[in-house]
Amino acid sequence: METESSLAKLVGLSNALLTNSGNSAIFAALHLCRLAGKTKVLIPHEGSWFSYKHLPGLLGMEIEEIHTDYALLNLEDLRAKLDNKAVVLFATLGAYAVLEPIEQIIQLSHKAGALVIGDISGTIGMSGVNHCLLDFAVASFGHNKPLEVGYGGMIASNGSLSTPVLLMAKFPEFLIEKLQAAMDSLQSRYEFLFRKRQKFLPKLNLLGELAHPGLVGINLLIKHKPKEVIEFCKANNLPFLLCPRYHRVREKAISIELKRLRKKA
Predict the structure, then answer these.
(1) CA 242 to CA 233: how far, in whole Å?
(2) Quick one: average pLDDT of 188-193?
(3) How many C-alpha atoms does 178 have within 13 Å on its Cβ side?
(4) What value does the mean pLDDT take over residues 167-175?
(5) Does residue 26 or residue 205 have the better pLDDT?
(6) pLDDT digits (tens, 9 = 90+) for 70-111
């Protein structure tokens, strides 16, 4: 399919297949890793999707968490937990606010004989981000994702994607045109989000302590829960989430959800 070829090129891997959801893509990638003899899944302590904690168990795979610092993976803890039975499953943009050290994660994992699944929902098509060394890339096209269709996802790899899981996870044909339009506007979407981040970051930095302000992200994490930040968000119509919560951070914090913003017509 032409759209799948375009997705593979966008991701930087040889093969891509559409799925009915990001969760189906993750499950398919985990199944392929299980078939390769992997039995342990290393996941971040925070900043990732809920299904990371549940899908491995359906395949009889153990789960172990990697320490994080406001969603940024701790490489030393990762190194200590890696072995040749492991799969590393992580979001390349932790909490949508922190660009992870993707190449270092892959290098450490491959040196230990582990496989790597990168959830690239937050970085698919992002300029300067390299996914080509991942064993598997997965993504969701759900609501409030950079590549937003409102439904579906994808899995990509340089290797085979043959698993019966994918036979039950078909992407509907009637959404192909909408997906293509989202792909065509993806760069302008990122540009819009980065402009918003640069607009609000200086003021928010005065009102509270930002986590990892020097790293790339499309959300902003403010440590603790300053009342002034909440008031600022309400005054500027900025969507936000109060933490702790697993898919952002497990600390007291405010996640400013810039990724939910839309260009005005």
Answers:
(1) 12
(2) 97
(3) 13
(4) 93
(5) 26
(6) 999 999 999 999 999 999 999 999 999 999 999 999 999 999
Cβ(124)–Cβ(78) below 8 Å: no
Nearest residue to 245 via CA among 71, 31, 37, 8: 71
State the chain's mean pLDDT as an integer: 96
Q: Can you name the CATH fold of 2-184? A: Aspartate Aminotransferase; domain 2 (3.40.640)
Fill in the amino acid letter for 257.
E
Distance CA 258, CA 265 (A): 17
Q: Residue 265 and residue 263: Cα distance in Å, rounded?
A: 6
Q: What are phi and psi of 101, to 5 degrees?
A: -75, 75
Does an H or E element contain 28, and which?
A: helix 22-35
Q: Is the peptide bond before 244 cis (omega within 30 degrees of 0)?
A: yes
**Please, what is the Cα angle at 260 between 185 and 10, to 5 degrees?**
35
Give me the residue spans of the domains in the chain.
Answer: 2-184, 187-260
Helices (H), 88-240: 102-111, 176-184, 186-207, 227-235
d(CA 134, CA 116): 6
What sign does the dihedral 202-188-96-128 (CA atoms) show? negative
* CA 4 from centroid of its chain's CA atoms: 19
> Three-state SS for 53?
helix
At 195, is the secondary structure helix, strand, or coil? Answer: helix
DSSP class of residue 166? G
d(CA 229, CA 201): 11
